[in-house]
Specification:
homodimer, 296 residues, alpha/beta, UDP-N-acetylmuramoyl-L-alanine:D-glutamate ligase, 9-stranded mixed beta sheet, 4-stranded mixed beta sheet, 10 helices, 14 strands, Tagatose 6-phosphate kinase (chains A, B)
């Protein structure tokens, strides 16, 4: 079972408008509500692939209840730690040009709740074949939270996939997750002059860098790989990285060799771009690309 | 007891930002949540004035639960009819220039739920001294809903204050509420060439037109009054009309003569402008203006 950790999930609201006009009132005619957060996208993609998955993390308040209800409707099994604070919302106003985002801060998580989650996670780790640690940390959670969880997983012999940014990424890399999967911008924010040598100094694990249509680059402790989509795919890139993360987590579980694993990640990421909704992918595009890429 | 009817309440979310930039992502650091909708503002103002009030209307879903919790925290007594649909949200993104609004549609209310509310309202009307009918109608509610409720109130001898716009205002006026309180723009949308004679053709009751700093104009079946704030007040005009409505509802209950009632409405409206939050007013400004205006 792949356990996906989402410490800062969200209720994602999408408001379609003709055009966003600052300082006007927009009457929204249709609201899309989705359980959001990178880890939940990973869980949904794995569930859609038919892979056994368990979503865990922190949920609280009435917005947390709504997120739990949406996950249930998606059929994704979950075991969240309930917290006193209210799970955040994100609002995406989508007009004919692009999306404008408003991201609420996560709830403040006191130390006692974080300890309770770590204990809960220790209880789940025995059933896990892989753990994914994805997304931002809500306020109050220690910046080395992912390193703490990665060490719990390591002590149980469970490989970890890490996908976050900023100081949480730097601290998490130090714990040597099997794979860290930043995108190119997140890595550049950490070190604008990064290269294989600087990455290997930051982590004992492998790093897979996603770079949109330029595909994936993997820097392992002793090798490098690249994999590029055979055809350009247009659509909604939100959630494409999460689909890549899902493919890498599955590959970790199955002990897939790097070329096959990267080919699968590229195909699933592109199939996610072809789907209008984050956390979903186009199965036809996936099958087609998967057979077209073979191994990288 | 003044009964305030809010058929389309909302969870009002306010997101402060430095500047709203279309097609960018804005990280919100602080979210203000408020029970919104004109009728709930009227209820809060009356409650703050120490007047016995009961808020009724339609609430549903998890967002409805949050609105009920916020009203409870405000200490406003309520007796809402629960519906299956989810109460709407409004998002106001406030930058240093002005607010940008995103208003979700209300939940679709089936005929059976509307009938259930009318029966509930019939049960409350015996305890009411005045009824306020404020705000928009959610989808599914008949356009003459306020006329239906006004007739229930009339049959119990309870005067009605109506504050809405568009077709709901036109249909409501036909039922002859004691006072209709549109603002100048809402009235112009109904009839750009309105005057006392055309208004008297639309309703057997009185009409109070609010016009911002220009004050109030009352057209009764047999007279006209004007009342202007003695000093300009700057601040947040959102909710000022609702404070006026609260003053008029109290005046209706007490049988206050027009000049005194309008003076109170002008003072309370201006005191609401002086408060940064809709549905609240500055008590000091209110006292000062109230003594300054006397009667109009």
């Amino acid at each position: 079972m792949i356990v996906t950790v989402t410490l800062n999930p969200a209720l994602d609201l999408t408001y379609p408008v003709d055009a966003l006009v600052p300082h006007r009132t927009h009457r929204i005619t249709e609201v899309a509500e989705r359980a959001g957060g990178k880890g939940l996208n990973v869980a949904r993609v794995l569930h859609a692939l038919g892979e056994p998955v368990l979503a865990t993390g922190l949920l609280g308040g009435p917005t947390g209840d709504v997120v739990a209800g949406l996950l249930e409707a998606d059929g994704v099994p979950d075991s969240f730690t309930r917290i006193a604070g209210d799970t955040r919302r994100t609002v995406a106003v989508v007009d004919q040009v692009d999306a404008t985002g408003f991201w609420e801060p996560g709830p403040v998580v006191p130390a006692a709740e974080w300890s309770r989650f770590v204990a809960h996670f220790r209880g789940l780790i025995g059933e896990a074949s892989v753990v994914t640690l994805c997304g931002s940390l809500p306020p109050g959670i220690p910046i080395d939270a992912y390193a703490v969880l990665a060490r719990v997983a390591a002590s149980a012999g469970v490989p970890v996939l890490l996908d976050t940014s900023g100081p949480a990424l730097r601290a998490g890399l130090a714990a040597g997750p099997a794979i860290a999967k930043p995108n190119a911008a997140e890595l550049a924010a950490l070190d604008p002059d990064w290269n294989a040598a600087t990455l290997r100094a930051l982590t004992s694990g492998s790093v897979v860098v996603t770079d949109g249509a330029a595909g994936l680059r993997a820097i392992t402790p002793d090798a490098e790989f690249r994999c590029v989509p055979p055809v350009p795919v247009t659509g909604n890139p939100t959630g494409a990285g999460d689909a890549c993360a899902a493919a890498l987590a599955r590959g970790l579980r199955d002990g897939t060799e790097w070329p096959g694993m990267l080919a699968d990640a590229v195909a699933l990421g592109a199939a996610a771009v072809a789907s209008p909704v984050a956390g979903a992918f186009d199965p036809g595009v996936y099958r087609e690309l998967r057979s077209g890429i073979g191994t990288c």
